[in-house]
Amino acid sequence: MSASPPDPTSLTLLTLVAETGSLGRAAERMGISQPAASKRLGQLERLLGLRLVDRDTRGSALTVEGKAVCQWAGKVLDELDALLAGAAALRGERETDLRLASSMTLAEHFVPRWIGALRQTSPDVLVSLKVTNSEQVAALVTAGEIGLGFVEAPTVPPGLGSCQVASDRLAVVVAPGHPWARRDEPVDLAELARTRLIVREPGSGTRETIERLLAGAGVKPARPLMVLDANAAVRAAVADGAGPAVLSAVTVREDLAAGRVVEVPIGDADLRRRLHAVWAEDRRPTGAADLLLRIALGSSGRTSVTPGHGEPRLTR
Asked: What dotted CATH number matches 167-272?
């Protein structure tokens, strides 16, 4: 089988065949001829080495294999939409309707989806997104340079309104060859504090969260082994065997699944944390910022408010 991945147009065609039950109607929805759609579907089947659709005079129906591929295709297309929405926001350095800033974990795994949902309901809204650490996000909000920020720090600075929009947990990870990967007992906070870790830069929400956790347990962290300013750089250093790190579990999800890193259990410590939207206390989000905030709240399940109606539960 070819190593080339399926193109998004072919995946979209497959999902439309599933939705309409007809190759002809799917082709019409895409604005292409039925022969062109049939040819594209055949190319997709040859590429994957699977029969995806059964066609007869009554219409088109997905095979068992086709249904599975269609489900995966939907996830791929959703991720592509999020990528394009995030990239469009990052390009938006010109005049914008909505200026955002986000800490790295939120920017990598949450915010692009919310922007994508915003663009579906308000396609004319132009969004810019600055990716930085939680400390800098709070500073940008305070200075009035952005309308809405997203942070993963354990506390929200005075003068900012906030609400929880997501949650995650931290994970201690090491390379498969690290001694911790083979131990039977969990690592306790005292041992974690004594260990020199690969950490993010000062101002990072992840770093602040683990430092506060250790301080609350009455232990002082050792001098960092390495300080890096991006999650991707920390992940690569851990996988290469440089040392342990504490990162968001969602950030290392793919590395764990691929066996590039191993998660180490940590005693009875609670590594869950809340992720917040923040805004200036005297400048409550309005317009596109308010709509995006409601979308984020709705995706987290923390409110059932429909964007544009009612009031979400906000805390200060």
From this structure: 3.40.190.290
- Domain over 8-75 is classified CATH 1.10.10.10: yes
Reference 116, options 304, 315, 292, 302; nearest CA is 292
Q: What is the rounded CA–CA span in Å between residue 18 and residue 67?
A: 8
CATH of 82-165+274-300, one of 3.40.50.920, 3.30.70.360, 3.40.640.10, 3.40.190.10: 3.40.190.10
* Mean confidence (pLDDT) of the chain: 86
As given in the structure block, the two tokens for residue 67 are 């249904």
pTM: 0.66
Q: How many Å apart are CA 291 and CA 289, to the nearest integer?
A: 5
pLDDT at 93: 44
Q: What is the mean pLDDT of each run of 10 residues along the chain (316 residues)?
A: 76 89 85 87 91 83 89 87 74 64 93 91 87 93 92 90 93 96 91 94 91 89 93 94 95 94 90 93 86 87 37 40
C-alpha dihedral sign at 6, 12, 15, 16: negative
d(CA 91, CA 236): 26
Q: Which residues does residue 131 pair with via DSSP β-bridges, in sequence order?
A: 102
Domain limits, the chain: 8-75, 82-165+274-300, 167-272
Measured distance CA(268)–CA(186) in Å, rounded: 9
| Bridging pattern class, strands 148-151 and 160-174 | unpaired
